[in-house]
Every structure is written in C-alpha cells, then in structure tokens.
Here is the input.
Amino acid sequence: MSGVLLQNIVKAYGAAQVVHGINLTVQEKEFVVLVGPSGCGKSTTLRMIAGLEEITEGQLSIYGKVVNRIAPKDRDVAMVFQNYALYPHLNVADNMAFGLRIRKMPKPEIKQQIKNVAEILELTDYLERRPADLSGGQRQRVAMGRAIVRHPKVFLFDEPLSNLDAKLRTQMRAEIRRLHNRLGVTSIYVTHDQVEAMTLADRIVVMNDGRIEQVGTPMELFMNPANIFVAGFLGSPPMNQMPGTVTEKGVEIDGIIIAVSGNLSAQVGRKVIVGIRPEHVSLQKEKGTTALPINLDLVEPLGSEALLHAQFGAHQLVFKTETQGSIDHLSDVSEVYVHASMVKLFDAETGEALPL
Amino acid sequence: MSNNDTVYINQKSFKEKLVWLLDHFKREWQIYVMLAPMIIWFLVFLYKPMYGLQIAFKDYSIFRGIEASPWVGLEHFNDLFSNSQFLRAIKNTFLISFYSLIFGFPVPILLALMFNEIINAVFKRSAQTIVYLPHFISTVIIAGIVITAFSPSAGIVNTVLSWFGLDSVYFLTKAEWFRPIFIGSGIWQEAGFSSIIFLAAIAGVNPSLYESAVVDGASRWQMMWKITLPSILPTIIIMLIIRIGNLMEVGFELIILLYQPATYETADVINTYIYRQGLQSGQYDLAAAAGFFNAVVAFVLVMAANSISKRFSRTSLW
Here is the structure.
C-alpha cells in the first residue's frame, strides 16, 4: 500500500493556478524530499497533504483513504514547521503534550510518551524550559518531538532546518535521517536546499513552477537528470551547460568535437545543450576522454577540493578537482579531460535529456 | 590605595563618561531632536508644575506668591483627612475606578477576541468601525447623549421601561444609579477603541502556531483559549499596569458634566473635589494637597503593579 498518493492534484487561488496536476506516490516508510526553487509549489503541496490548504482538483489518499474532505486532525499526519511553531507560553513538556491533551489522552500516558520521546531526542533535561530559553537546535528537536509523540502515519517537514546555522543544519540533518531510520514513519520533507535533499531522501521530487520535473533516487537525479532544469538545480556548483550540435563522432562545440557515449546517428545535426558536471572531469588523459582546452582564470581552494574557473571557447565553465594538499600544481592547467559517458545532452528547444 | 587615588580614578571615569556622552550626542543628535518635543512637553507641563507642589505645605495666597507664603507643614493634609467630603471622594474614586477596572478592562479584550474570530471581512470592518466611533465623540456630546438617553420624559431607557408598565425613573438624580451609568457609558465610549491594541497583539501571533494547532486537532475555541489569549497576555498585563497606574485618574470631565449635588454621595471623586476646592472656592493650597495625595497613591499603585507583574509573569513596564 502506498503511504501517500497524489493524483492530478491542482491548487488554484482564484484564476492563478500554482500547482498543475501533480502525480506522486510516496511508499510506506519512504523518505521523500520535495525540492525546488522558491515559489515552485512544494510547500503548497505539503500544506495540501496536511490539510492546511484546500485541494482545488485531484485526489489525495493517505494509506488508501481519500482525505480531500477530511479535517487535518483526522488525517493522522504531524507537521514540523520552518519556524518551529512552538507555543512560547508553554514549556517543552507542555508543548509536546499539546496535541495529546487536545485528543484527551489520559495523563499518565501523556507523561510516558513525553518521557520516551524526550529520551530519543535528548530533551529530558530541558522539559521544564520555555522555548525562549532553548537554542535553535533544541527548539527544532522540540518541534520534532511534538510531532513524534503523536505517532502519526505520516511526518510532514516544511523546511525545518532553514532557520539554523550551517553547522547545526548538518548535525540536525543527520539526526533527522537517524530518527527516520529508527521510527520508519513515512516522511515528506520540503526544502530548497539541494544538499539536504540529496543527503536525506530515499527519493527526491524536483519541482518547478508547480510541476514535477523528475522523481528518483538522489544518485539517479544527479547522474541522469531528466532535463536542463534538474541538471542545473542539483549539484554544487551546477552542471556546466554549453550549446552544441550533434555530429557522427560526438557533439561539436565551437569547432571542438567531444566524444559522447551511445548511438548518435539518428540525432546528427540536432541542436543540443551539452552538460558536463564540474566533478566529471579529470586532469589526466585517460582512455575514452576528450581534451577540453581551457584558459584558467581562477582557482578557489575548498580544502580537499578546489574549483577551477576557466574559459572554454566563449563559455565560462567551473570544474571541481582534488587538491591533494596543494593547489600549486593547478595554476598551469591548460586542459581538462571529460569521459564520453559523463557528457549529457539535452534538446536545445525543449530542454529534455536526449536518450543515448 | 589612598583617598586621593580613589578620587582621581572616579574623576577620570567621570570625564571618560562625559566624553562618551558628548560623542554619543554628536553621533545620534537626530534621534534627540525627534525626542525633544516630548521631553519639552514633559518639562513644561509635568516637571515645572512640580515646583508649585510646595503650596500643599504652605498657607498659599496668590497675592504673596509661592515663595513668600508661610510654611504650614501638614496642616492641609490634616484638614483633608478630617473632612468627610474628601474621605467620601477617596472612597468614590476607588470604587468607580475599581468597578471600571473589573467591568471595563475585560471588554476590549473580549471585543478583540471576537473581532479576530469574524471571518467575513466586510462584516468585521463594519463592526469595528461602529464600536470605534464613540471614542471620537467629544465628552460633552457623550454627556448629552447620556442625559438624553436617561431623561425621565423622552429618554429611550424610560420609554422602554414604560413598555413594561414600569414608572419613569430620573436616573441621573439617583445616587445609586450614577456609578452604573458612568461606568457603562465609559465602556461604551472606549472599549472599541481600546480593543485596537489587543487586536494588534493578536495580529502579531505567529500564524504557524494556529496551523500547528489545527494539525494537532484543536478547535477554534481551544485555539482562542490556548494560543491567542496566552500569546497576548504580556500586552494584557502591560495595559493592566498602565490602567492600575491611572486608577486615581477617573475621567472627571464626564463626572462634572453628569453629576449634581443629589449624586455627590456616589459621584464626587478626588479630581472633582480638587476642582471645586481649587478653582471654584479658591483654596489652591488645599487642592494642591489633595492632588499631591492623589499622585503619591498613583505612584505607589503603578510601582506595586509593575513589581507584582515582574515577579509572577516575567512581564513588566521597566
């Protein structure tokens, strides 16, 4: 049985449609991340699943039950909000107990639930504190605790880490994933941060302009983006993109032919966008690689890796390479090598990936 | 360390402080220019008159002036506290203030909570405009409306009573009716406008608290009690402190316009007493003593309210 099933879900505010008939199946116990730029409809989709927004058209099912007309409280979902949504006048224990008290759970049971969850989230010492007396990470844990105590069928996370600093975000990201592994509850997580999406998800749903661009595992999306948008959105730095033309020997960019894997005979003459990920080049010539002559204009050391900013013909490209403890040897790089299997082609007009 | 050293350090730090202060004024002078009108207003209308407070302890004569009038110690206070009219005024001030607080203070909060629950925007705006309007009517007109409404001949109240076969009552001449009429008209005039501050506080409540509560299954009633009300509690407490501080300041213009000797028994408050003694009978020194007493009590009240609030609710004015 699917955990959450979205069938042709549409959301419109008056005449303005913001979600255009999306279809998605989230499997039971799966961790799915909705990712996309601001305004792409990911939060609206999550809020429709929670019941905080009405569904204009389409059908939403949670564990086999159609919930379009069912109140949020009866959907058996719990939501973690971006700004934590903790009640400032209640202490940690009361915040976590709020939903249980509303549901009239017996007091001893509430106490036991809070004790268990506080132990899982290492909040036992903070139960008497008010949110104002907690750090950002602790508040986030309380917000998660409030969701966990209810034992819902589905967890919904609305950009829960975006208010935290970079270090804490990395730490909390790992905690959320560990928690999911431990509890095994179906989870839908919204973020605009592609690193969060890549690290947390069983499957990623990339959204843009109210539509789903691609659904797949993080590595599927990284290695085989379905279109230019996904290619540009996932990966840091994003995939290098250059216009080219398909020839019998490969793809031609500014007079240089780059070898491409697969059979291109049916595509000869086609205008394409050539995509090469910054990580997918090497500084040594190997079998099956094509040399790209470059004019290096900047080396940015990142520690174990460095970014090479270079001019290739009329195109400004970025490559990522290992430093091996020094960047001295990078300053005189004049060629990089790309393997045929790492060159991706997208139709110049539609932006869709070409089947190779 | 010798005494001289201590003096030297203190002087130096004072100089440093002075330099810092001058630097600060130089940097932030625009802010002080903006503050100036308020500071001047305070100095001219509240601090300078304090000099005249000394007449509460003098046998003041306008011909001799403040300086030349002889000191009489606490004589005026003795006179005041042995005067049954003043004691009655104290009692009335407290009772009217207390009842206003008990019955009048919760009304704007209830109004704000009710406005917040109205979903239809047009109805909400209309209802708000209707309850805000009386605030903008002059006190004289309010008094006129009250006098007309409670008139024994053509007043709407007596007309309604006559429908039920009851006799007309000349309410404004009955001492027992003065307080309900005064407090009721005060609520009618100010409750709507006072609700604005609570509505503003409600508008500041994080909307995701409600969304979270909706997902948790809270009803609108539960959200009002468990989220809205506790969230605006700091504002309620601040307003309560201010209100307690003003407990001695009964709206005496309306009392002067509504009361008459027949209702002095329940209507005469400290401020109306001061007005009659000071301006009508020319006993400025006695009126100043009454005013001084009023101010001291108000000061004690506001200090006490603030420290109680600080201790029990973590919210305070300072």
